[in-house]
């Protein structure tokens, strides 16, 4: 398939049902972005980027990428870095208060502007025109823990010594990268490796009796390496936007999930580098896939 996420689930179900009715075993290779270790490193990369524009929200940020992701709210971040319950409560409170403030500010701006509907949910605020959103975010400031020193982190309620060390180390990685001279600046792959070593992140993955997790990290490493070589080795924000736009269609490496005794159902991205005796290509569409070029 050209894409699994964009194919209607009913069409996929038809294929599953047809294979099942014939007694043909099949497997759908999982997506890379659905793995907790990949979401964890994306969270750390997002945090390490320069401040994102508050008026633009990626789909990841709408769905799961915010301070509450550190608490395990959306995926099992605790398997790689387990913060204390007290710190989790602080992060949830900060994120909830921020989202509530954004909705209240939007309602205030909407009441002053003709023809603007009041929003009830945080993510719907971003459906407004940029002019309205700019007015909203003049009233609300997005929380940024990365600008806080140890005393500042304690003042907002992060007092657990291990958690303090984690955020201080994370803030140091971010500050060092963005404030270094070009000659001394780490590459984004260097930053990636530092994040992997943060609080024993990679050591925990390596110690797991699950080889697929190491293959997944290796796959993301390869993607970042290619971005460095082809696009830019210092543009961390650019890398984040590239991953946000493309990673959803990447499957987990075949070495970790290869299904040899039946039909592998996968996207073209997932099939890169693989060889099969028989291949059936779905989702053909005239002038769309394959794309028509002048």
Structure explained in plain terms:
With 294 residues, this protein is mainly alpha-helical. Helices cover 49% and strands 2% of the residues. It has twelve helices and two strands. The chain has helices at residues 9-21, 36-48, 59-63, 85-112, 130-139, 150-155, 161-179, 188-196, 201-207, 211-230, 236-246, 254-257; strands at 26-28, 263-265. The longest helix has 28 residues, at 85-112.
Any chance you could write out the topology, listing elements then pairs?
Elements: H1 9-21, E1 26-28, H2 36-48, H3 59-63, H4 85-112, H5 130-139, H6 150-155, H7 161-179, H8 188-196, H9 201-207, H10 211-230, H11 236-246, H12 254-257, E2 263-265
Strand content: under 5%
SSE sequence, one letter per element: HEHHHHHHHHHHHE
Largest beta-sheet characterization: 2 strands, parallel
The low-confidence parts are: none
Briefly, what is this?
The chain is mainly alpha-helical. Helices cover 49% and strands 2% of the residues.
Question: Keywords, please?
Answer:
2% strand; 294 residues; 12 helices; mainly alpha; 49% helix; globular; two-stranded parallel sheet
């Amino acid at each position: 398939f050209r894409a699994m996420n964009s194919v209607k689930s009913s069409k996929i179900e038809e294929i599953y049902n047809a294979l099942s009715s014939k007694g043909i075993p099949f497997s759908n290779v999982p997506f890379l972005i659905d793995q907790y270790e990949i979401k964890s490193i994306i969270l750390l990369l997002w945090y390490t980027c320069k401040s994102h524009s508050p008026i633009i929200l990626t789909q990841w940020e709408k769905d799961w990428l915010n301070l509450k992701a550190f608490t395990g709210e959306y995926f099992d971040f605790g398997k790689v870095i387990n913060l204390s319950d007290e710190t989790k409560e602080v992060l949830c409170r900060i994120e909830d208060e921020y989202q509530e403030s954004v909705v209240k500010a939007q309602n205030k701006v909407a009441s002053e502007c003709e023809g603007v509907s009041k929003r009830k949910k945080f993510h719907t605020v971003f459906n407004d025109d940029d002019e309205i959103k700019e007015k909203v975010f003049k009233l609300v400031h997005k929380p940024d823990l990365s600008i806080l020193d140890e005393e500042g982190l304690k003042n907002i309620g992060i007092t657990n010594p291990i958690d303090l060390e984690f955020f201080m180390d994370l803030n140091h990685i971010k500050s060092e990268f963005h404030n270094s001279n070009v000659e001394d600046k780490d590459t984004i792959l260097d930053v990636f490796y530092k994040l992997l070593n943060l609080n024993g992140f990679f050591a925990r993955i390596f110690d797991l009796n699950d080889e697929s997790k190491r293959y997944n990290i290796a796959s993301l490493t390869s993607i970042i390496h290619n971005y460095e070589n082809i696009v830019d080795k210092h543009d961390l924000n650019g890398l984040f936007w590239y991953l946000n736009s493309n990673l959803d269609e990447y499957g987990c490496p075949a070495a970790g999930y290869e299904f040899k005794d039946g039909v592998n159902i996968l996207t073209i991205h997932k099939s890169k580098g693989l060889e099969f005796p028989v291949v059936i290509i779905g989702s053909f569409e005239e002038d769309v896939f394959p794309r028509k070029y002048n």
